[in-house]
Write a structure and sequence with these properties.
Layout lengths: L5 H19 L1 H4 L4 H29 L4 H28 L6 H50 L1 H4 L3 H16 L3 H20 L5 E3 H19 L3 E7 L7 E3 L3 H12 L7 E10 L2 E8 L13 H14 L5 E5 L6 E8 L4 H10 L1
Parallel strand pairs: 2-4
Antiparallel strand pairs: 1-3, 4-5, 5-7, 6-7
Helix pairs in contact: 1-3, 3-4, 3-5, 4-5, 5-11, 7-8, 7-9, 8-9, 9-10
């Protein structure tokens, strides 16, 4: 949704306010035609005061105060602005010597009240705008999650993976190892069912995401045998933390494809999670050739993951870092805000 600019809304709002003043002064216009001039002058100074209040309101909104706190602080500035507008209007219209100070005091209160309404309206519009933008951001995140789930078969069960897995099943059957072949087919079916049957949500608990990733690794281990070694170091305090759904599997698949499969003796995949500085950190490492010998560096999976992280958390609240250590292999580090599911937060006091 495209919102009107601040200055466009300023012109529209104060223009409507001026028209209301003219309509209210219609009975006096013919007897006192200077009423139009007086209204225009007073409106001009109130307009200037509202422009001066704008930076203050904007900086105050950044601190996210409550409505009451915002109103208290704005009222002080509005009273000062109202007094200035009333004095400047009287000085412009009648000159300093003819100023009637009681009238100026009364006008100051009226103008201050109008500016308080202006600040309240500004706050309401900004909060509504932020809520709409937040809903749109969540909708985009849900759309990204839905698209990620629909494209999961491309990242997780792409033709190469399915071909190799079914080849492995065929080899097991020819070797007379029917139980192993049946078990591997069941694992492939379970991975497919999990991909398509689960509810589409932007975030899931890390424990659920790890369960899906381990199903994928089980299939790869059945296919590659002892060539694929897996190390999992998942901190217990992060198991109920929220992470984007389908976050790990594309990254792990890249690690297997580029760090283990090309090497004759195979390799190792390590997945770690922990808290660092109050933020969630997930690290995926793989052994393998050094960077100069690797294939394409940033594939579809990495780009897709980065776009989804930006959609969910914004540009500054997340990080995806890809590194190639001198010793070889690749390391992908993901940092996210540490948040738990609502039900987890509610049960924490009871668990203590």
């Amino acid at each position: 949704m495209r919102f009107p600019s601040f200055w466009r809304m300023q012109m529209m709002g104060w223009g409507c306010f001026y028209l209301m003043g003219i309509v209210g002064s219609i009975p006096d216009i013919f007897r006192r035609p200077w009423v139009l001039r007086d209204n225009a002058v007073s409106l001009a100074f109130m307009f200037l005061c509202s422009c001066a209040l704008h930076p203050f309101c904007r900086s105050l909104l950044r601190r996210a105060p409550s409505w009451a706190a915002f109103a208290r602080r704005a009222a002080v500035w509005c009273m000062a602005g109202g007094a200035f507008a009333a004095f400047a209007t009287a000085l412009t219209l009648v000159g300093f010597k003819k100023i009637v100070w009681p009238n100026v005091a009364g006008k100051s209160a009226q103008y201050a009240f109008a500016l308080v309404l202006w600040c309240s309206l500004y706050l309401s519009i900004k909060q509504w705008q932020q809520s709409v933008e937040e809903r749109e951001r969540l909708l985009r995140a849900e759309t990204e999650a839905r698209e990620a789930r629909l494209s999961a078969l491309r990242y997780q069960l792409n033709p190469h993976f399915l071909f190799n897995s079914l080849n492995a099943v065929s080899t097991l059957v020819l070797d007379g190892n029917a139980p192993a072949a049946t078990r591997m087919l069941a694992q492939i079916g379970e991975l497919l069912r999990t991909s398509l049957d689960n509810e589409v949500i932007p975030e899931v608990e890390l424990a659920q995401e790890m369960a899906f990733t381990e199903r994928y690794l089980a299939i790869e281990q059945a296919r590659l045998g002892e060539r694929l070694q897996v190390d999992l170091t998942i901190s217990s305090e992060t198991l109920d933390a929220l992470v984007p759904s389908m976050l790990l599997q594309p990254l792990v698949e890249n690690a297997v494809r580029h760090g283990v499969v090309p090497v004759i003796e195979g390799g190792r995949i390590a997945i770690e999670s922990g808290l660092h500085g109050g933020r969630m950190r997930i690290v995926i490492r793989n052994s393998g050739p050094r960077r100069a010998e690797t294939q394409k560096e940033n594939g579809i999976g990495l780009n897709n993951t980065l776009e989804r992280l930006r959609a969910l958390y914004g540009a500054n609240q997340q990080q995806l870092l890809v590194e190639w250590p001198e010793s070889g292999g690749c390391q992908v580090t993901v940092e996210l805000p540490f948040r738990k599911a609502p039900h987890t937060q509610e049960t924490l006091p009871c668990e203590r």
